[in-house]
């Protein structure tokens, strides 16, 4: 963390500059009675400088996570840094995925050994819940003991720790550099101090029958449609104020997908429930639970429970879906 | 039809196959028999592959790649001499813009070099060949990889390279895409405007077709060469390497929608093969079918596509 400490000391002159700006104006006599516009200008200038240096500190913090080398691989080139404004420069068409969570910054660092390279991406999020959310979208691979949770497969290590999501990739798609990749991952993980806290909503998913690594956490419609396309329209009124968890279930011979959405209040939840029943299930409401036969001989279900809306998809058994929904409400 | 007009399309519509039927057929959800069998002029799409065009470390054999491209151009233009086909399409009077992709699964450099050498053979002046992605531009062979220049965008949001060009070649990568379903030749034009964010919408990016229907592109784009050496069949644009596979081919055509429909069928079949069950793209790439039905930019009906396949046939997936 030496870079971080170096950077912290560099903030001190900034504060002095801020003070100096104000006092210089006093000396010129222009502000013997300071006017509001000048004061505002100074405040804006100071705020911008503080924001700028906060960004520098954060970027240096992120850069300090990277070790100089791992096995035969050494850092090559300068790390590239992206924020919410320029993430498109790195991930055109992919940036929206990260912006759908509370993404703050990304640092990309290449490591080289001869002509081969490994790319490390460290995504910093505002909350550990959102870092978990991003991680949860693709948990395929073998479990490895790195960070709060990690998987490795075919040259890609992904892990979540604290407010960070880390991806380490060898594009060959094989395991030729697995040792270097895992070594890098362990080093980076050790440099991230606090452990993360998974979203509380996750605990509401029943454990019985939950397919391992199938649980997802998200907020917005574009993520839902990537996991399970429902509609081009936002029928469930998903947005940054909603939290949702989704999991795949194997219950005896029955598969289904379970989606739980938590809304800010009961009226919004009710509106979403009614909208879904009317416009997707195309059925009239009678109570807080609906099960409707849809295409391919499958059943979709919905149950409103105060601020929470439970939904099931892909079930082939109407009765079992009803029982499943009924038991959910008891949780 | 304006770019921002909203579409209402649900999973249930999709499974019924009553709306955007051609998409349902391409994804294997609807029988091809539901499509019209009327005899009409068919759009030609060419697939050409070679098992040895890249080695186990994905190093491209440029000699094999050159022959592969020659075969593709001959088949596309219906002439045994590929140079004649290039000359039919481009001349010394042209300023040619080559739109590549540099994102995540980038267009192979070897393909860019081969296109350059063929354009030169067709008589196009080296300094009249622009290669670009977003606002990184190279002029002439000396800058074809470094793309050191920036030419900016016009008021209508299109790249100034498009404005300068008399002819365009679209050379995208081939990948699935988490927000648009799939990203082939139509979506590649999102890298030619400065308001791409307006097309990356939560309705499955339904309006990409507006780009290819725009006269700036529709009237100038003379050739599409989809780089299918190592496509991505899940996720994207960010790559999980386990979902890359060596298809070892290119797909050529003149009609964006037809090329993308063929590419979509291949990606969907690869997904089904991988999972050993139907594994439909999420979200569905509505923009391909809508480029046909809404924007009239080409055909998404497989029955109206004349598909010519040559070279390595194992695993061609269509």
What does this 3D model show about the protein?
The complex is a heterodimer of chains A (331) and B (318). Chain A is α+β, with helices and mostly antiparallel strands and 331 residues long. Chain A contains 9 helices and 14 strands. In chain A, 37% of the residues lie in helices and 28% in strands. In chain A, the strands form 2 sheets. An 8-stranded antiparallel β-sheet of chain A has the order 1-2-3-4-8-7-6-5. Chain A has a 6-stranded antiparallel β-sheet with strand order 9-10-11-14-13-12, with helices on both faces. The two termini of chain A are 44 Å apart. Chain B has 11 helices and 10 strands. In chain B, helix 3 (62-77) packs across helix 4. The radius of gyration of chain B is 18 Å and the shape is globular. The A-B interface holds A 88, 91-94, 96-97, 138, 140, 153-156, 167, 169-173, 220-222, 225-235, 280, 294-296 and B 6-12, 14-16, 57-58, 103-104, 134, 177-180, 183, 187, 190-191, 196-197, 200, 202-204, 206, 235-242, 244, 282-284, 286.
Write the layout of secondary structure elements.
The complex is a heterodimer of chains A (331) and B (318).
Chain A: H1 2-28, H2 36-63, E1 69-70, E2 73-83, H3 87-90, H4 95-99, E3 103-113, E4 116-125, H5 128-136, E5 142-143, E6 149-153, E7 156-161, E8 164-169, H6 178-190, E9 216-218, H7 221-227, E10 243-251, E11 254-262, H8 266-281, E12 289-293, E13 299-305, E14 308-315, H9 318-329
Helix pairs in contact in A: 1-2
Chain B: H1 11-16, H2 21-26, E1 43-49, H3 62-77, H4 82-89, E2 96-100, H5 109-121, E3 129-133, E4 136-139, H6 160-164, E5 167-171, E6 175-177, E7 181-183, H7 185-188, H8 209-213, H9 215-218, E8 221-228, E9 249-253, H10 256-275, H11 286-293, E10 305-311
Parallel strand pairs in B: 1-10, 2-3, 2-5, 5-8
Antiparallel strand pairs in B: 1-9, 3-4, 6-7, 8-9
Helix pairs in contact in B: 3-4
């Amino acid at each position: 963390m030496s870079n971080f400490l170096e950077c912290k000391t560099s903030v001190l002159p900034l504060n002095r500059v801020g003070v100096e700006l104000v006092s210089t104006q006093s000396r010129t006599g222009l502000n013997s009675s300071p006017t509001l516009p000048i004061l505002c200008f100074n405040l804006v200038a100071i705020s911008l400088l503080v924001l700028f240096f906060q960004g520098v500190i954060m970027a240096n913090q992120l850069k300090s996570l990277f070790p100089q080398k791992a096995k035969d691989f050494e850092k090559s080139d300068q790390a590239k840094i992206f924020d919410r404004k320029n993430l498109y420069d790195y991930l055109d068409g992919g940036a929206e995925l990260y912006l759908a969570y509370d993404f703050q910054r990304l640092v990309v660092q290449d490591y080289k050994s001869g002509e081969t390279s490994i790319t490390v991406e460290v995504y910093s999020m505002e909350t550990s819940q959102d870092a978990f959310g991003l991680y949860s979208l693709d948990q395929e691979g073998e479990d490895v003991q790195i960070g709060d949770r990690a998987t490795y497969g075919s040259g890609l290590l992904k892990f979540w720790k604290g407010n960070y999501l880390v991806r380490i990739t060898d594009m060959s798609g094989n395991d030729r550099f697995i040792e270097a990749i895992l070594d890098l991952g362990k080093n980076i993980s050790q440099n991230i101090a606090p452990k993360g806290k998974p979203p509380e909503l996750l605990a509401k998913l029943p454990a019985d029958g939950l397919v391992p690594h199938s649980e997802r956490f998200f907020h917005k419609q574009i993520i839902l449609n990537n996991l399970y396309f429902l509609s081009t329209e936002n029928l469930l009124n998903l947005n940054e104020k909603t939290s949702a968890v989704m999991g795949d279930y194997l219950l005896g011979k029955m598969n289904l997908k379970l989606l739980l959405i938590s809304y800010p209040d009961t009226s919004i939840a009710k509106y979403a429930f009614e909208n879904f029943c009317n416009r997707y299930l195309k059925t009239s409401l009678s109570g807080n639970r609906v099960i409707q036969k849809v295409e391919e001989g499958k059943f979709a279900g919905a149950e409103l429970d105060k601020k929470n809306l439970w939904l099931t998809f892909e079930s082939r058994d109407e009765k079992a879906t009803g029982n499943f929904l009924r038991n959910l409400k008891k949780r | 039809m304006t770019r921002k007009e909203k579409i209402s399309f649900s999973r249930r519509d999709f499974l019924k196959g009553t709306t955007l039927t051609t998409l349902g057929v391409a994804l294997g959800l609807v029988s091809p028999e539901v499509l019209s069998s009327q005899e009409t002029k068919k759009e030609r799409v060419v697939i050409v592959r070679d098992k040895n065009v890249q080695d186990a470390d994905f190093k491209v054999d440029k000699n094999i790649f050159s022959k592969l491209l020659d075969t593709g151009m001959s088949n596309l233009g219906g002439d045994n001499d590929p140079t004649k086909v290039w000359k039919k399409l481009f001349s010394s009077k042209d300023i040619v813009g080559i739109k590549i992709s540099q994102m995540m699964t980038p267009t192979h450099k070897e393909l860019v070099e081969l296109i350059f050498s063929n354009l030169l053979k067709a008589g196009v002046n080296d300094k009249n060949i622009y290669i670009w992605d977003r606002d990184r531009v190279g002029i002439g062979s000396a800058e074809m990889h470094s793309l050191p220049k920036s030419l900016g965008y016009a008021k209508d949001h299109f790249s100034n390279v498009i404005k300068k060009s008399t002819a365009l070649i679209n050379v995208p990568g081939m990948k699935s895409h988490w927000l648009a379903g799939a990203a082939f030749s139509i979506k590649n034009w999102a890298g030619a405007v400065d308001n791409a964010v307006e097309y990356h919408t939560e309705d499955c990016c339904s309006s990409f077709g507006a780009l290819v229907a725009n006269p700036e592109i529709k009237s100038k784009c003379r050739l599409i060469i989809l780089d299918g050496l190592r496509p991505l069949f899940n996720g994207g644009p960010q790559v999980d390497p386990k979902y890359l596979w060596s298809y070892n081919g290119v797909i050529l055509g003149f009609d964006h929608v037809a090329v993308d429909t063929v590419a979509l069928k291949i990606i969907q079949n690869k997904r089904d093969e991988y999972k050993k069950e139907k594994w439909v793209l999420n979200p569905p790439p509505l923009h391909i079918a809508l480029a046909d039905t809404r924007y009239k930019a080409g055909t998404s009906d497989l029955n109206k596509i004349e598909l010519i396949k040559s070279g390595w046939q194992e695993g061609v997936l269509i």
